[in-house]
Amino acid sequence: MLKPRATESTVQPDPSEPIEPSALGKGEEHLSQAYWSLVWWKFKKNKLAIVGAVIIFLFYTVCGLFPEFFSPYPLNFQSDYLEARPQPLVFKNREGNFSLRPAVYGLEQELDLIARKRTWVVNEERIYPISLFVKGQPYKLLGLIPSNIHLFGIDTEKYPTGTVFLFGTDRVGRDLLSRILFGGRLSLLLGLLGQALTLVLGLVLGAISGFYGGATDIIVQRLTEFVGAFPDIPLFMALAAAIPIGWSPIVVYFMLTLILVFIRWGGLARQVRGLILSLREREYVLAAQSSGATDRRIMFRHLIPGTMSHVIVIATLMIPGMILSETALSWLGLGLRPPLTSWGVLLQEVSSVRVIRFAPWQLITVPFIIIAVLGFNMLGDGLRDALDPYGGR
User: Fold this and answer.
1) CATH 1.10.3720.10 fits 178-386, yes or no
2) What is d(CA 255, CA 246) in angstroms, rounded to the nearest whole number?
3) Who contacts 116 (Cβ-Cβ below 8 Å, separation ≥6)?
4) Would the pTM count as exceeding 0.90?
5) Which of 38, 334, 349, 367 could form a disulfide with 389 if both were Cys (CB 3.0 to 4.6 A apart)?
6) What percentage of residues in the chain have a pLDDT greater than 90?
């Protein structure tokens, strides 16, 4: 019987032979089939996730690591401009002509007869150009490196009376932009540190509960239900009010972090328990048990790594909750207290009707909180889709 002649349409390539780059079509790209390569490929396709990642990176770089450099003034630097309104950016030189170099108008004191208080108004006759990498108040970068270079500001050697208050000042003359950047350090790090501790506690207890079952499972689950039975805000208030007033601010900061961890760990533990229950009957786990592996090795080498993709998404989406909880507690006066500065402390300082009426620019902290929360949510949603690269979405 005659065999059909091999044609271009019937000859199949040997799957065991590697594909040469020249054999790929024009514009095609070789994509690794490794899990994390597929995750990164799918994550890059999600534009909102990329935007969220950039937002979070900028927040933690500017506020978390280098607020001393990016802020024009130190945290507690007090000027003579009490509750001064924001100085708008203008693109003019001192002669009044257009200039690509930004500048700000000067401020002039004025007596408000209606409010019966002294106020600061913009004086368009005085223009102060903004300089980059300008010398200002001394500080220690990361608490170690002494420096006096700020990203932007007014060259006080040329303009001794010049100021740059882009967001205005508070009731004692402190620059709001600088305080927001410094306040973001505590709020963002509290959310990150609190979620890290929550991750460890919830992951370990959830894995133990799901792996051993029986009495251990009952005890852990009843404990999570006991904690979850209390409303969050009253429980926050009760635990935060129990912190002695005489404790140092740093101790109060860590105690508040532990309180948030105590409230939040139960939900993560229950989800990890459900994942462990489905994973402990898999063939690779049974093979490890039959080969004599210890329970500790099975949990930390086989079971917990299998839950990490799900846990990473949960942790990313829970960090905004930590930040908002700290903000709410500090705004109620039960969280962080001066001299510590966080976004919640800044909101607590403007909680009076008088400030909202006569100095509404001090509420500028709210957009920063909203943008940070949206950034975490966009990043978490993108990770949720990317960590399931074989899904249809």
Assistant:
1) yes
2) 13
3) none
4) no
5) 38
6) 27
